[in-house]
Recover the amino acids of this structure.
């Protein structure tokens, strides 16, 4: 931990991200699509580059010098992940290609052998497809059912309904830490306490939380925590599953191959202990070298100053959008990250997104991999402006001015 | 503003679309939906003597899709329905930068889509609806039936008719023979060459009394088929195929259950039986999970009769499987 961090300086931090200096259609880029994937600081890009230039070898197999360096870089990322997530031990961190693989690992290795017809899995109405479809697939195979906890019109989970839904037939609950569409921060610690009292494991999808919040899995009290690296300023194809050691020990391998074995004979194979048991094949070594750099970079930032900057961006963006005639905001939870979904009357989300792109502004339009939530909101698609700490108040002004301009074109 | 896609002509059609709204007495209609953005365009047509006499479009969609639907109407009212498919191909090629705009009327305004590949589907959406509407017209006999057609619709069952023969043969062949079948788990490509069935065989089953070919269709077309035939107190189940690209989603179970329902509820049969190539363990296991049991009764494979395929091995035979229906 770095105790002597410099106070958060938005302009200096922004300069750490080379891509943010580029133009789009001759206009300075305004990147408001960080919930889709974040931009990367130079230290991450350089770490990936350096890995291939200087350290490239396979992990855990080569005894030569390069192999040792590559293994150190890869396992170093595990140490950083354990620290960032607040794990009791580095052995509780399984490195994956991202959140989707992490959740599928739990679905197939933990849930599939346990589920019986009539069992239930509880999710919420605001989940990303990655926290819905893997459960549907194991339900289809086992005769278990998916149960959905409702949300309020403001986009907050109905906590009482979630807790009431934790009936004895529920074998697992799965919830987003932060909604990718609404920006809502769910009260995970409270949900975990309720689930624990009933002996129901809780999985948390942390994809959108790690880029914004400090995460401490022990304080949250959950049983599984899935995350992705590319939304947290690291390379694509990196991520992790954290689970309690005793849970990981009970889980059989999901992928088979190299790296995950102790001894292979044709009569039968014995498997490595967790976490390597779940890491068959050659992993994304360079990516994890980059992720380690990203997590070190985050650790070097003044967390309180960063949070204050994000809160002020969210406040500014929300107020400015409310003043746009005909704008409808989706998700106004009391506790949220700077992610705002909205529509403008008389203008279609895709048209606005294309026209904003002509102004150099990148926002996402569509269903954001959350069909059930779109259905609940009663709209086919929304626009989403998702910000990170490298965004500025000036960019929000440019975005809102451009929105007013392009809206007139369509009206 | 530097927005070539939203040129004046496109915006005019989007703001005040031509042919907007339902039409009187439609003979054909279909809705196309874009799964990526949730947009929907429904096209209604009235055909007379093979010509499009009236055209209307409704739905919730972006400016590009609405303008395209509007211009499309200008282009096709009065046109021969058979001219639509080549026109659609020409439009798709034009916006992909692979062809000119001859005959496309005002749709040439979508030339900028060559530089916006992510938005091409928006302009094609009304074309898809038009295509679906016309396709429905060649198969269904009542307005009500094809008015239900939607690209996003749930799979639905119907009984095959004579003009379904070619589609059924193609489906069955794709599920069992050749490299296409390797996409699914029902492939027999390593056991048999040649054909699984042929048009004459399928047509005979459609025309036979106490025999029915059950079709399951969805927006992607024919999804699955199965033949059921009443043979005394039991029903026979056969010629079962699911599109190999869309297997593994529980479709087979739905078809088998519907076949059993018909056999029991409509025909009063007390058992369902079938014959399966005996070395197909994974297929037999699949039926066993659905309540079928092996009888140990074997029937010889028709070696030498090319109508059933050309065996690649000499040990093929059929085993009879049975399930009581209650």
């Amino acid at each position: 931990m770095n105790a002597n961090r410099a106070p958060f300086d938005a302009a200096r931090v922004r300069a750490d991200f080379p891509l943010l200096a580029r133009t789009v259609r001759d206009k300075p880029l305004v990147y408001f699509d960080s919930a889709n994937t974040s931009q990367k600081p130079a230290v991450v890009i350089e770490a990936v580059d350096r890995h291939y230039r200087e350290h490239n070898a396979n992990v855990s197999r080569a005894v030569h010098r390069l192999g040792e360096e590559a293994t150190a870089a890869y396992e170093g990322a595990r140490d950083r992940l354990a620290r960032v997530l607040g794990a009791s031990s580095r052995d509780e961190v399984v490195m994956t290609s991202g959140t989707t693989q992490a959740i599928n690992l739990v679905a197939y290795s933990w849930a599939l052998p346990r589920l019986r017809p009539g069992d239930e899995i509880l999710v919420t109405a605001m989940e990303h497809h990655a926290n819905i479809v893997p459960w549907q697939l194991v339900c289809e195979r086992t005769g278990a059912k998916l149960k959905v906890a409702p949300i309020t019109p403001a986009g907050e989970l109905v906590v009482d309904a979630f807790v009431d839904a934790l009936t004895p037939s529920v074998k697992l609950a799965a919830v987003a830490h932060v909604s990718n569409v609404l920006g809502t921060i769910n009260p995970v610690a409270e949900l975990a306490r309720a689930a624990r009292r009933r002996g129901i494991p809780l999985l948390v999808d942390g994809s959108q939380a790690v880029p914004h919040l400090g995460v401490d899995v022990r304080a949250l009290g959950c049983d599984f925590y899935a995350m992705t690296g590319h939304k947290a300023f690291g390379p694509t194809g990196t991520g992790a599953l954290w689970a309690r050691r005793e849970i990981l020990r009970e889980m059989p391998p999901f992928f088979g191959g190299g790296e995950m074995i102790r001894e292979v004979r044709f009569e039968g194979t014995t498997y490595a202990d967790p976490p390597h048991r779940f890491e068959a094949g050659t992993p994304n070594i360079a990516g994890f070298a980059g992720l380690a750099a990203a997590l070190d970079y985050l650790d070097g930032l003044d967390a309180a100053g960063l949070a204050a900057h994000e809160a002020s961006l969210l406040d500014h963006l929300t107020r400015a959008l409310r003043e746009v005639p005909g704008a409808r905001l989706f998700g106004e939870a009391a506790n949220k990250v700077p992610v705002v979904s909205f529509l403008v009357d008389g203008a279609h989300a895709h048209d606005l997104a294309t026209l904003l792109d002509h102004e150099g502004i990148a926002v996402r339009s569509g269903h954001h991999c959350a069909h059930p939530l779109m259905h609940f909101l009663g709209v086919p698609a929304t626009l989403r402006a998702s910000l990170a700490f490298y965004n500025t108040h000036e960019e929000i002004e440019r975005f809102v001015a451009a929105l007013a301009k392009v809206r007139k074109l369509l009206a | 503003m530097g927005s070539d896609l939203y040129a004046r002509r496109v915006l005019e059609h989007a703001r005040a679309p031509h042919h907007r709204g339902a039409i009187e007495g439609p003979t054909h209609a279909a809705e196309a939906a874009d799964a990526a953005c949730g947009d929907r365009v429904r096209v209604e047509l009235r055909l007379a003597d093979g010509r499009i006499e009236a055209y209307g479009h409704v739905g919730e969609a972006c400016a590009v899709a609405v303008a395209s639907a509007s211009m499309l109407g200008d282009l096709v009212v009065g046109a021969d329905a058979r001219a639509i498919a080549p026109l659609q191909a020409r439009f798709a090629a034009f916006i992909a930068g692979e062809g000119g705009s001859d005959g496309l009327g005002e749709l040439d305004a979508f030339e900028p889509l060559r530089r916006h590949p992510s938005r091409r589907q928006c302009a094609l959406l009304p074309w898809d609806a038009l295509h679906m509407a016309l396709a429905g017209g060649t198969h269904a006999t009542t307005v009500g039936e094809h008015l239900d057609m939607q690209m996003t619709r749930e799979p639905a069952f119907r009984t095959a008719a004579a003009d379904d023969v070619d589609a059924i043969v193609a489906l069955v062949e794709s599920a069992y023979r050749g490299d296409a079948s390797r996409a699914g788990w029902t492939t027999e490509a390593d056991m048999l060459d040649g054909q699984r069935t042929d048009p004459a065989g399928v047509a005979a089953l459609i025309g036979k009394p106490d025999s029915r070919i059950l079709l399951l269709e969805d927006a992607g077309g024919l999804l699955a088929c199965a033949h059921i035939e009443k043979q005394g107190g039991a029903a026979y189940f056969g010629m079962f195929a699911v599109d190999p690209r869309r297997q593994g989603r529980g479709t087979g179970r739905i078809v088998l259950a519907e076949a059993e329902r018909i056999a029991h509820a409509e025909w009063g049969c007390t058992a369902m039986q079938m014959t399966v190539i005996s070395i197909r363990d994974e297929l037999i296991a699949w039926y066993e999970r659905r309540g079928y049991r092996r009888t140990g009764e074997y029937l010889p494979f028709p070696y030498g009769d090319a109508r059933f395929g050309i065996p690649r091995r000499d040990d093929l035979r059929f085993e009879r499987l049975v399930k009581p229906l209650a």
